[in-house]
Amino acid sequence: MNFAHPNQPITIPVLRPIFFTVLCVAGCLLLPTAAWAQKERTPDKGLTSERPDTRKQIKAATSLLVQEPACDGANFATDTFNNNVFMGGPMVAFAWTPNVTETITRIEIFTGESAGPDALAIWSDDGGTPSKPLANLSNTNNFALSAANSWQGADLLTPVTVNAATKYWVVFDPVGGEQAPVQNGVGQQYWGSYVGTVTGVPAPSWFGPFSFPDRAWKFRVFCLPSVKDVYAVKFLCGSFTPPFPSEEREWPVKPGNYFTAINVHNPNSVLVSFQKKAVLLYGGERPPRPEEPMPPGKLFEASLKDDWGLEIDCTDIRKQLLGSAVPSAPAFITGWVVIEVPGTPKHPEPRPIDVTAVYTSHGWDLSTGKPTYMGFAEDVVPVLPKRVKP
Length: 390
Description:
The protein is mainly β. About 10% of the residues lie in helices and about 40% in strands. It folds into 2 domains: about 65-225, Jelly Rolls (Sandwich); about 230-390, no CATH class. Strands 15, 16, 17, 18, 19, 20, 21, 22 and 23 form a 9-stranded antiparallel sheet that branches. The longest helix has 25 residues, at about 15-40. It starts with 14 loop residues before the first helix and ends with a strand.
């Protein structure tokens, strides 16, 4: 205010204080926003955000339960993670191409620092350029989180089979604020959506794609354990003559000549794959010590078309299944041939096959001092499987 002369009018500049007041208020409002912008940033339209890594890492409690190992995933070999990246709240879908065909029953991500609830799903791919999530194949229910950064997830409501070399999407619906399941590495392509759930998102709602080296998404899946049918077939091959006569020593078989033929038939209308191996229990030139456990031989892959068959005889056992581990014929050997028929992701129940063992033999007449043939025997034995679970 200016006071000049009593007879002069008084002039009060009102606008200037108002102007400065507005500037002050605006500045006070903008300062926190500027400070927030310096502390947090989002390169993917709010899907994830970053801030200085000042959060305390909470160590997960050690579980007393023994869990089956994960069968597949991405970046799940270690618990390394980028502690400065957290989820913004919108849904995220990151790409995944499995190396083998497998049936998924459970999915987990590396997260924490929130109570949730979160949800996960596996989606198909639309095949576009660039491709994006198409439709939900199976999903979890919402699940709560623990505060500790650790592997957390849930079982899929329905097991889903994924095919090797086929692109899929792991869809993550976070509540927002939880630890982002990311580490440094080869960043997968990922999309986001502000609407929808893990069970459905309108196709136009996906935005992206994004990919950053500090957002290599971490997840792991667990597969349906495949049962298998095991056919264990006893074999006896070669000639056995006691190296010396003894009334006190007992030998594995009576003196004689033995032959085993194992017939395998596929009664199904589709090809069946299986594995075969042998376990040597007695070798004529190198017999084991009494009750000595013996290891199995190498597994060999085999398959039969529908209604086809094959035979595993003594020559096959010596030359293929046991290889150099046994003496050549006619040295006596005995043990097991083991045939394993596993289930498959598309057909978890092992397909049945026919396995029949045919045994023929004759004895030795040792009364003259020189072994001569004596008698003949034959036996045909159907072999039933045992169902074995992992």
